[in-house]
UniProtKB/TrEMBL annotation:
Active site per database record: E169, E355
PANTHER family noted in UniProt: GLYCOSYL HYDROLASE, LP05116P
Single GO biological process annotation from the record: cellulose catabolic process
NCBIfam families (UniProt xref): BGL
Protein name: Beta-glucosidase
Length: 447
C-alpha cells in the first residue's frame, strides 16, 4: 500500500505533533502555574461534554512510554510545545526549575531514541497571571515577558534543541480567543482586540527569534501558520471579493507582515477603524529572516459574500463531499494548493507541514486493533499531493502528522480523535492504530 505514495527524498523529515495542554495533564504538579486554558476549560459551557485537559493523555507521567511508541513508529522528529506556566508560573519572574527539568528529561529521552525535538514555545497556554495583568496579548509589555521566557528556555535546552518555533497559529488564538470566543480567554470583542494581540505576537516573534539565535548555536527558527487557500464559491464578483477579503484576514495579514514587513494595504483600509498602534520600527522588528515556515493545514475555505465577521463579511460554503468527525472537508488537493500559494507568493527558504491529519470516530475492534482505513486513505492522499508540490519545486523538508495520539481537542473536547495512536482515556492505554502502522511502514520504506 505504501508504494502508492512513492518515494520522498532520503533527508525528508517524518514526524508527529502534539501540544502541551492537549496531552500533558498534571496541571497542578511540580509548581506549574495556571494557564488561560485551565481556566477556560473549567468555565461551564465552553467545552463539549465538559471535558478539560486536567489529565488529558497523562503524558507528563507517561512520556517514556510515549517515546517508546514514537520509536516503534520510526519517527525522525517529534514536534511538541512547552507550557509557559510550567517554566514561569506567574508568567515572568521566578523560574520553576522542576518545569524546565521535565522538558530537559523529555529532550534527552528523544535524543537517546534518535528522534529530533522540534519545540514550539507558544501553543496557546498563556500563564493566567499574564491574562489577569493587562489582558494578556493586549498589553504591549507582554513582548518582554515572552522574550524572558524564550531566553530561559533556550538557555536550558538550546545545547540539545536546534529546531525552534515561536508561535503556533497566531490566527486561531487571537481571533478565536478575543473575537469569536471559542478559545481561551473566550472574549467576544471587536476585531481591534485580535489585531492588537496579533501585533504584539508578531513583535514578540521577531524579538524572540533574535534571542534564540543568540542563545542557540546552529538554531533553526520559524513560525507556524494555519494558511487556508480561499476559493470563491462562485464566479459572482461579490463572492470573488469576499474570498479575497477572507484571504487577507486569514493569510496575507500574517504572511505579508512576517515575510515582507508590511500589512496588506487593502486590509489596512478595511480595518482602518480597528487598527492597533503601529510604532516606527515595528514592521522591521517582526520581519526577521525565517529558517523555515511551518504550515498547518486541515481544510480549504470555500467563501461567499456573507455577514460573518464584519467588515470581512464572508460566509463559508460547505461543498458536497467527505467530512471528518470535526466537520472539516476531506480535500487532499488543498495541501498542494496551499504549498503552491505560499511558495509562489512568498518563497520561504524551507517549508514544513507542521500539522495535517483527520478526526474520525475510532473504535477498538474485536481483534483489539483500530482499523481506521479512512485515516490511512487521508494520509496517503494528502502525502501524494505534498509530493506533487515538491516535484514542482516547492521546498518541503518534512511532514508532521497531527497527532501522535488522540488528545484534548480544545473546545470540542476529547472525542474528536486525531491520533495515529488511540488513547483509551479511562485506562490511559495506548494502541497504535492502523494509520500508525501505515505511517511507520511508509517511513521505513522511504529510508
Ligand atoms: C490546530 C491546532 C492543534 C490541533 C489541530 C486539530 O489548529 O494547532 O492544536 O488542535 O488544529
Amino acid at each position: 500500500m505504501t508504494s502508492e505514495v512513492g518515494r520522498f527524498p532520503g533527508n525528508f523529515i517524518w514526524g508527529a505533533a502534539t501540544a502541551a495542554y492537549q496531552i500533558e495533564g498534571a496541571i497542578d504538579e511540580d509548581g506549574k502555574g495556571k494557564s488561560i486554558w485551565d481556566i477556560f476549560s473549567h468555565t461551564p459551557g465552553k467545552i463539549e461534554h465538559g471535558d478539560t485537559g486536567d489529565i488529558a493523555c497523562d503524558h507528563y507521567h507517561r512520556w517514556q512510554e510515549d517515546i517508546a511508541l514514537m520509536r516503534q513508529l520510526h519517527l525522525d522528529a517529534y514536534r511538541f510545545s512547552i507550557a509557559w506556566p510550567r517554566i514561569l508560573p506567574r508568567g515572568r519572574g521566578a523560574v520553576n526549575q522542576a518545569g524546565l527539568d521535565f522538558y530537559s528529561r523529555l529532550v534527552d529521552g528523544l535524543l537517546e531514541a534518535g528522534i529530533t525535538p522540534f519545540v514550539t514555545l507558544y501553543h496557546w497556554d498563556l500563564p493566567q497571571a499574564l491574562q489577569d495583568e493587562g489582558d494578556g496579548w493586549q498589553r504591549r509589555g507582554i513582548i518582554e515577558d515572552f522574550v524572558q521566557y524564550t531566553d530561559i528556555v533556550t538557555r536550558r535546552l538550546g545545547d540539545r534543541v536546534k529546531q525552534w518555533t515561536t508561535f503556533n497559529e497566531p490566527c486561531v488564538f487571537t481571533w478565536g480567543g478575543y473575537v469569536f470566543g471559542e478559545d481561551a480567554p473566550g472574549w467576544r470583542k471587536s476585531p481591534r482586540a485580535a489585531l492588537t494581540a496579533l501585533h504584539h505576537v508578531f513583535l514578540a516573534h521577531g524579538a524572540a527569534a533574535q534571542v534564540i539565535r543568540t542563545n542557540v548555536a546552529d538554531s533553526q527558527v520559524g513560525i507556524v501558520l494555519d494558511i487556508n487557500v480561499a476559493e470563491p464559491a462562485s464566479a459572482a464578483s461579490e463572492d470573488i471579493a469576499a474570498a479575497y477579503r477572507f484571504d487577507g484576514y486569514q493569510n496575507r495579514w500574517f504572511l505579508d507582515a512576517l515575510l515582507r514587513g508590511e500589512y496588506p494595504s487593502d486590509m489596512l483600509e478595511l480595518f482602518a477603524s480597528e487598527l492597533p498602534e503601529i510604532r516606527a520600527g515595528d514592521m522591521q522588528q517582526m520581519c526577521v529572516p525565517l529558517d523555515y515556515l511551518g504550515i498547518n493545514t486541515y481544510r480549504r475555505s470555500v467563501i461567499a459574500q456573507g455577514n460573518e465577521l464584519a467588515p470581512v463579511n464572508y460566509r463559508r460554503v460547505q461543498p458536497p463531499g467527505e467530512y471528518t468527525h470535526i466537520g472539516w472537508e476531506v480535500y487532499p488537493k488543498g495541501i498542494y494548493d496551499i504549498l503552491k500559494y505560499v511558495h509562489k507568493g512568498y518563497k520561504p527558504a524551507k517549508l514544513y507541514i507542521t500539522e495535517n491529519g483527520a478526526a474520525f470516530i475510532d473504535e477498538v475492534s474485536a481483534d483489539g486493533r483500530i482499523h481506521d482505513e479512512r485515516r490511512v486513505a487521508y494520509l496517503r492522499e494528502y502525502l501524494s499531493y505534498v509530493q506533487r508540490a515538491m516535484s514542482e519545486g516547492v521546498p518541503v523538508a518534512g511532514y508532521f502528522v497531527w497527532s501522535l495520539m488522540d488528545n484534548f481537542e480544545w473546545a470540542v473536547g476529547r472525542d474528536k480523535r486525531f491520533g495515529i495512536i488511540y488513547v483509551d482515556y479511562p485506562t490511559q492505554q495506548r494502541i497504535i492504530k492502523d494509520s500508525g502502522y501505515f505511517y511507520a511502514q511508509l517511513i521505513a520504506h522511504n529510508r
